[in-house]
UniProtKB/TrEMBL annotation:
This protein's name: Predicted helix-turn-helix-domain containing protein, AraC type
Organism: Flavobacterium johnsoniae (strain ATCC 17061 / DSM 2064 / JCM 8514 / BCRC 14874 / CCUG 350202 / NBRC 14942 / NCIMB 11054 / UW101)
Keywords of the record: DNA-binding, Transcription, Transcription regulation
GO terms assigned for molecular function: DNA-binding transcription factor activity; sequence-specific DNA binding
Coiled coil: none
Domain HTH araC/xylS-type: 180-289
Amino acid sequence: MNNQTETQSCDFSSDLKMKGFKVYPINGDFSKVPVYSRRDFYKICINTSKSIIQYADRGIETDGTILFFGNPIIPYSWETVSENYEGYACVFTEEFLKAKDRSETLHESPLFKIGGTPIFSLNAEQKLFVDSLFQKMIKEYETDYVFKDDLMRSYVNLIIHESMKMQPSENFFKHKNASSRITSLFLELLERQFPIETKNEPLALKTPQDYAQSLAVHVNHLNRSVKEVTGKPTTAHITERIINEAKALLQHTDWSISDIGYSLGFEYPSYFNNYFKRLTGTVPKSLRM
């Protein structure tokens, strides 16, 4: 049994030949699948295997070929049960796909929106067609064709539109222990916000409401589950993680205190100073070397 937890996000590493886009094959060696650290990448994956894909309060068991759509703000885990598996995947930013079309954000798309069911079971004919599109993308990805970006967008949009004509999988099941599952995904999503990589973009998720929305659950349900499983309220987990990150940034970067506060979601330095002092008993500048 192979365990794989997807992060649904990406980093502009040296293997990305195109800004904001990558396509690659999937086979039995997960170690060869690119690992990404940024949190703004969407994913489309065709996979043939027996797997269990789990969300906050539901999951799906697959046995055959599926087409999967991943949203970077909706965490999930992917457990591959069978030893043999194969397929293709591509990751891309919204800016890449919507470069010339601002009519609708991907968050509003039926395939990527919160609460959707973006997993499709494919028959042999559908698998052959989607496989051929990914194979064409992989071939073109290695070329120097001047309009390669537009060509890749066309292939991705063709996959999206073909998928929208299909019926989403109806094999979702409810977790026996929803509280444990929601708590696990909350803690995973919380950890994904860190470490802070830039001082120019403030922390996106700061409140229990933010996390509940990303997990597609009611905030009261999230709070009850987290308290039941961990014994601590949701806010305590968020606060502790922010404070730990603040201490690390104060001790190990040369960012100004105001920049650190901004990166952690505080609009004004005074808000950050008061927050830090209230929770630690000291002011941020006391941690500077």
